[in-house]
Amino acid sequence: MTSTGKPATGVTLRLLDKADREIVKLDRAIVGAVYKFQHEFRKNPEAGGFDLKPLKGHERLWSARVNREYRALLLRLGGNDWLLVSVKHRGHVHRNLDRLAYGINQVTGAIEYVDLQVVEEDVLRREAPARPSESSSAPEPAPRPAAVETLFGQYSAERLADLGVAEPLIPIVLKLTTDDELLGLAEYAPRHTGEVLLRLRDGVPYEQVMEEVTEPVAVEGAEKADPEDWQAAVDRSQAVVITDDESLQSILEEGDFGRWKVFLHPTQEKLVHRSYSGPARVGGGPGTGKTIVALHRVKYLVDQLPPGHSKPVLLTTFNKNLAADLRTRLISLGGPETLARVDIMHVDQLATRVVSESAPGNNKRRIDDTQALREWRQLLVEAGESRWDAEFLSDEWNQVILGQAVASRADYFRVRRAGRGRSVSRADRAEIWQLAERFTQRLEVKGLETHRQVAERAAQLEIARKAKIEERRRQQEQRGGLDNIHVESGSGAWLRYRYRHIVVDEAQDLGAAHWKMLRAMVPQDANDIFLVGDTHQRIYDNQVTLGSLGVNIRGRSARLTLSYRTTREILRAAIGVLEGTDYDDLDGGTEDLAGYRSVLHGFRPSLRGAESWDEELDLVVEQVQAWHDIPRESVAICVPTNEKVDDVVSRLGRRGIMSTKITSEGPRRDEGVHVGTMYRFKGLEYRRMIIAGVSEGLVPRSSVDAWSQTDRARYKRELQRARSLLFVAATRARDALTISWNGEPSRFLRPLGVRSTLR
Ligand SMILES: Nc1ncnc2c1ncn2[C@@H]1O[C@H](COP(=O)(O)OP(=O)(O)OP(=O)(O)O)[C@@H](O)[C@H]1O
Predict the structure, then answer these.
(1) Which of 114, 317, 520, 638 has its CA 20 to 30 A from that of 35?
(2) Which residues, at least 6 apart from 473, have a Cβ–Cβ distance to it below 8 Å?
(3) Which residue's CA is minimally distant from atom 8 of ligand 1?
(4) What ipTM does this complex have?
């Protein structure tokens, strides 16, 4: 991420991606000296103490004194614009000057720096690993070529360079023979080189790597990057301007956890800073940084605003928990100045606010879909009604009656029920409508209201408000334009759009009413709505076609494909869970996870079956105990039901392991292993995860199969939702994943090689 803003001294000091990783490995005292160095250097690089001079044979690479022993290596981009690429012991700086390579990558146009000596010494001398054991938790054994065969021997240097592999590294790349060497190289190599090589090594064809990895970050147009234009190149590089004493410190001290704030991937960067002529959507698999992009987008939009005290930007998401997390991360990214211009609220909270504004004093209790279903069941029992089942009616009420704002019996006779699976006759409609009326009366009498009802009412209120604003605007235009100020007739209250920009996270789970409400809250204009989400992670029954709701994303849709969270091994298992199902793109089309990948490497997920739940609980405890090397809070256990959450908590307690339940408000306490049902894991991440209870009957729930007889469309949707739940859970893990079951394993585990216990 770059900025061209120059400080008062006219000196710009930037830090190149990966230099930070090298610096943090140094002794604490030296890191302290680097902090002092950057402070003084930004004031005056010419100060005598730095002994600033170009290195012999390099006109652009300079060395400056950090302390008696250490030297900073800096690329001079032009004038007083400096890029810190390395900090080295003085004894090593001059030893292999010809092995310090830097330049502008001809394909990506980004600045790259590599110390070939270090790479060669560290990478090519790595011992080949011992043959991995057969245990299921051993590192993934990649199919290995015969000992003397090189990994990339089939590609010419030129073909590798065309993919954007750093040219000075190509001779080393061509010598690699083991995966261990490759992983070592990826650690030192410029980011893009690592991505390309790992993808090729995955067996992905050359042309596909070109299309999925290189083309999205290649310099635009047919032109190659100008090898002498370093100022243009730094804007395409992963480099950050060190603005004050704290900025470098926070990058170094937060380590990997803070990198998202400073080093965006070029594909992420483009999406953040683009101007869109209307609503835009960013998709992509779990962990590809969609939330990160949404947060940077919010900051970018705020930075473009004229000064003021209002909050013209709305950042919204699906639930309270996630909204709280977005708030914390936005403060961390943009500080209080950014936060001051942004409303952060989850969609139901927003809807509630709209409805309460119009009817203050409404103190009905809000219930969710599960509680509403319970009310339906009771209604049917009390009415002695057996022709219709509660699930069907609840669905019909949510998706058709509320979803399409059907206001009268006559409307219900006319409404289209496309995609609803089971067809209903005119006589059926009459019966359903009558039951729906009884249901709404029941809620009314009990002082209850579903979130969906509130959302629908909020949508109608906002649509009416928008109509008024537009009407007023038309009147003013006819009168010759009155400064674009809108005054509500008679009241004197300002009437204007609530927001200028809306950014939505977890977009796949918002319902039609939410979208209608949001659409009416911003004027139709450039950069009005920016939404991020992944339909593979949809866990609520809210499939929408955005275009039909006035949110037209056609031509403004992009996808991220590189996972920053999960290892390649976990990712492969998680994708297996989704095998054979189709997913939509939120707009009536389809979407897949093509190109979804990771450069992180770790253990293969462990898959373990038990005879009984009791025995499985012992496996869970055993696994948690084995993970004693990391804080308990970095471990989470996910199970299919609330009863199982209680079982796990109590078993862990009996074995002296502290745990905490994840509620709808987030984890109850700070300490202990986090335990929750699958729904609670949306948007979260942990270093290690256990998913337990992945048995037939629970994943998917046995009730899902009942739909296969009565409503095929619903059956398909429910099955997909259950798969997505498991997919979401599996992709929360950063470096280790254990999946267990008892009795018959879930059918979703079959693509992972888990066999049925039934004959
Ligand atoms: N450019 C980046 N540099 C470093 N880390 C990153 C970057 N982008 C994302 N990450 C990290 O990757 C992880 C996943 O990011 P994020 O939560 O934004 O992904 P997501 O696509 O929203 O995931 P999900 O769909 O699973 O909710 C986070 O830990 C985040 O900090």
Answers:
(1) 114
(2) 484, 486
(3) 289
(4) 0.99
